[in-house]
From TrEMBL:
Transmembrane segments: none annotated. Residues 5-230 form the ABC transporter domain. PROSITE patterns: ABC_TRANSPORTER_2. Pfam families: ABC_tran (PF00005). InterPro entries: ABC_transporter-like_ATP-bd (IPR003439), P-loop_NTPase (IPR027417). Gene3D superfamilies: P-loop containing nucleotide triphosphate hydrolases. This is ABC transporter ATP-binding protein. The keyword Nucleotide-binding applies. Keywords: ATP-binding, Nucleotide-binding.
Length: 299
């Protein structure tokens, strides 16, 4: 297990605002991470520091074993695609691709061209004249074709329709399986990307409140579905994290593995056990972590 990123006791303050508040974690090689959290949680600030576009107030940071600031060897191995990527005013789509090809050592020109066709981007058009969604698509093309050993997408979807987002996820998974690398996706669309994520880091109020493998998180809860009255009977005495009624039916998310006695009981009542959505779990586990954190502070 080799760490691509090692962060220890990192802090970043903007005046009184503690945007990053004593954060420590590791990012391993060749995995897809989800960096999740509510608005203003500190994700973008953290990603700016990881990619040497911002300075930490204190703490240690290593990327590929070295400090990233003004470290060209490290920076050429990082591709950071931001929500509002800026390009020089005179650049066409083709110019962006040419500059990226020069910068990223592992750039794949054929892959870039096939992505340009997939996303129907006009090569000669000035980037200033691209629609919001087309600009996001261009960021995605650069991020994927860079094949950078550390590729970070910070909410790369602004203006992208569902078809284009699905194309992004499919191309990312196909290419990642042939060319494994470390990918960090920061997003609010947790359920949409959940099939991609191998590990989840949740940030809240500048702190890491969850840092776990996605499979482990999934094993923490299950959903039970069926006739509402029977589901309610089943839920008695159990820790319920979410209820979704539909007509006379009810689907509820419950803490537990959903095997053994619980499964037996549910099946005996004619109820169905299903996996629970990652989004529900992240929201719930985040709340639990917040409560435990506050109790810890008071103790
Ligand atoms: N340049 C700045 N000056 C002052 N405060 C800032 C600055 N940049 C960020 N902040 C504050 O730091 C906190 C973290 O912001 P950040 O942009 O990192 O959050 P985020 O998790 O990326 O949010 P979102 O999901 O909405 O993009 C917020 O309270 C924000 O207002």
């Amino acid at each position: 297990m080799s760490a691509v990123i090692e962060v220890n006791h990192l802090r970043k303050s903007y005046g009184q605002v503690k945007a990053i508040d004593d954060v420590s974690f590791q990012i391993e090689a060749d995995k897809i991470y989800g960096m999740l959290g509510r608005n203003g949680a500190g994700k973008t600030t953290l990603m700016h520091i990881l990619t040497a576009q911002g300075f930490a107030t204190s703490g240690d940071l290593k990327v590929f074993g070295e400090h990233p600031y003004e470290n060209e060897k490290v920076l050429r191995n990082i591709c950071f695609i931001k929500e509002s990527q800026k390009y020089p005013d005179t650049f066409s789509v083709k110019n962006v691709l040419d500059v990226s090809a020069d910068f990223f050592p592992k750039w794949d020109r054929d892959f870039a061209n096939s992505l340009i066709a997939d996303f129907q981007l006009p090569l000669k058009r000035n980037v200033k004249k691209l629609s919001r969604g087309m600009l996001s698509s261009l960021g995605i093309v650069v991020g994927l074709a860079s094949r950078a050993p550390l590729t970070i997408f910070d909410e790369p979807y602004l203006g992208l329709d569902a078809v284009a987002r699905s194309l992004f996820y499919d191309r990312l998974l196909e290419d990642y399986s042939e060319h494994p690398r470390t990918i960090i996706l920061s997003t609010h669309l947790i359920d949409e990307v959940s099939r991609l994520l191998e590990h989840v880091i949740v940030i809240d109020s500048g702190k890491v409140i969850l840092d776990e493998e996605t499979d482990t998180i999934r094993g923490r809860a299950y959903a039970v579905a069926g006739a509402a009255s029977k589901v309610e009977d089943f839920l008695r005495g159990k820790q319920v994290i979410h209820r979704e009624p539909f007509g006379g039916l009810l689907t509820a998310a419950v803490i537990g593995a959903g095997d053994g006695r619980d499964r037996h009981e549910a099946e005996g009542m004619g109820l169905e056990i299903q996996p629970v959505s990652l989004q529900q779990l992240v929201v719930h586990l985040s709340k639990i972590n917040q409560v435990q954190g506050k109790e810890g502070e008071r103790a």
